[in-house]
Amino acid sequence: MAILNVDDVKISLQKFGLYDYVVFVLMLISCAMIGVYFGFIKKKAKKGGAEADYLVGGRQMRVIPVSLSLIASFISGISLLGTPTEIYVYGVQYMYIVGGVVSMGFIMMYIYLPVFHNLQLTSTYQYLQTRFDKRIRLFGSVLFTFATMAWLPIVIYVPALAFNQVTGVNVHLITPLVCVICIFYTCVGGLKAVVWTDVIQTVLMFGAMLLIIVKGTYDVGGFSVVMDRAVSSGRIEGPDMRFDMTTRHSIYSCVIGGVVYWLKTNAVSQNMIQRYLSLPTLQDAKRALWTFIAGTLILLALCCYSGLLIYAKYHDCDPLTTKLAKAKDQLLPLLVMDTLGDYPGLPGLFVAGVFSAALSSLSTGLNSMSAVVLEDFFKPFSNRPLSEKATAIIMRAVVGIFGSLCVVLVLVVEKLGAVLQLSMSLGSVSNGPLLGIFTIGVLIPWIEGTGAIIGGTIGLVVMSWVCFKAQIAIASGELAFNPKPVDTQGCSYHFIGSEPMSMLAINATVPPVVEPPSDPGFALYHVSYLWYTLMGALITIVIAGIISFLLGPNNPDEMNPKLFAPFVERILDRRRRRKVAHSQPRIELADSAFH
């Protein structure tokens, strides 16, 4: 019997049939129908008018749908495909970030969320104008816009590649179709349509991952086999306790750096805060926060286990070395077709789950963009109040224009190749300075607007340099990764031997990563990517503090206490009461002297 070559195996695994297409198309149709329902059939909520209904669901949404929407919005296709890859290639060290996720929940619950929810904002950048001035609001909005438009095309492109792996359909045929459906239901139905489609998409994500895990574990011989192979290869290991900022993943970078990274992406990001603000009370928002954290941790655990499952399946025949998977983001689709390919409809469910993750991120981004453009670019510069009709046109036009731009940018993303690493770094560039400015706003009343914008600008410049230098170092080989061992001794097909492929940032679970160089010399851009957000935030806060005290700090007694975290508000209130108490005896003494 002739031995198959790797190309024959690839073709044999492409079993995406009629039932799979039916499942995938049904997912798209259900999303479109939800948009039609909330856009044309169900009457708009009266509270706050059409604008509030479109952007924050009339502030009358329910906890469970919003929680599921938060999970779907945060877990993109990059995360769903990239986390298993991370575990397969580098082991479970990344998963200690769960300590940072839980810590983020407490910090957000007591510091950031009460401020935004009590002020009843639509755009988080409205807060920056109220706390500082219009310049800071514009600065934050521009950063958000550019970062979002750099991220969304990649979010769409990654699952399109997975679809191409299992079907052979051209990326540029499926991308416009999926984007048009997403633009339609986001444009027509607003936040309510986004949230309820996210509910369907979250169920699909969990269902797809559970299906792969149950069937895959059965195929390899059970849970104990998966664990034994993971332990023997060093993929399951205790936390790295070294305090070395150039170590890619240590317990310190995962927990300390991780909590700051998650604070920016969840506590002050327009994409996420807009959902918390759609809930009627602060208690509801807090319940949604912890439901989101629980759901995200479960999904991360499923992704982590599926990475170990991929290794258990291919422990003696690494598909990256043999080129059975051309890119690392195709490892999970490969496992799916190998495990579920003989069951009509199940590969379709997986692809629907991956695309659901991408659609939820895209719809969230577009809905948030409509809020930011309306509130931060149109309203502040409009000479007269916008009519309800003009507001509706602007909000829907923004979704349509930016959604179409994402489709075009997918073409650019494909052509740029390695520059994807730089695109993925844009989040790290802007995250730190933005978090620094918001943290100054809610915690440090003495810092004023000029100090904040200078601090933010310097933080942005420094982090741009760090990320740019890190990308050059990765491309030149100055910074390298240390993957876990793989084997090809058990392969049953013929392949041309080659070195393992270098990891593109598009396949990472998070922005591009760096490792300590062989040269003992230290450079700032050798620091682990998990420290980037903290570094940018600290630079912003320190510079802003210095500038403010040189120019003359704010007087906290003259500021609105509602702009600060609850414990800062209490401190300022006690300070005012003490001043009033100290001034009372003098007034009484002056009165007695007069009489």
TrEMBL record:
Taxonomy, superkingdom: Eukaryota
Membrane-spanning residues: 21-41, 62-82, 94-115, 136-163, 169-188, 195-214, 249-267, 288-312, 349-373, 393-413, 419-444, 451-474, 529-552
An example molecular function term from Gene Ontology annotations: transmembrane transporter activity
Membrane topology field: Multi-pass membrane protein
Any single Pfam family the record assigns to this protein: SSF
Gene Ontology process terms (BP): sodium ion transport
Locations listed in the record: Cell membrane
GO cellular component, one term: plasma membrane
Keywords of the record: Cell membrane, Ion transport, Membrane, Sodium, Sodium transport, Transmembrane, Transmembrane helix, Transport
Signal sequence bounds: none
Family of this protein: Belongs to the sodium:solute symporter (SSF) (TC 2.A.21) family.
Descriptive protein name: Sodium/solute symporter
Organism: Culex pipiens pipiens (Northern house mosquito)
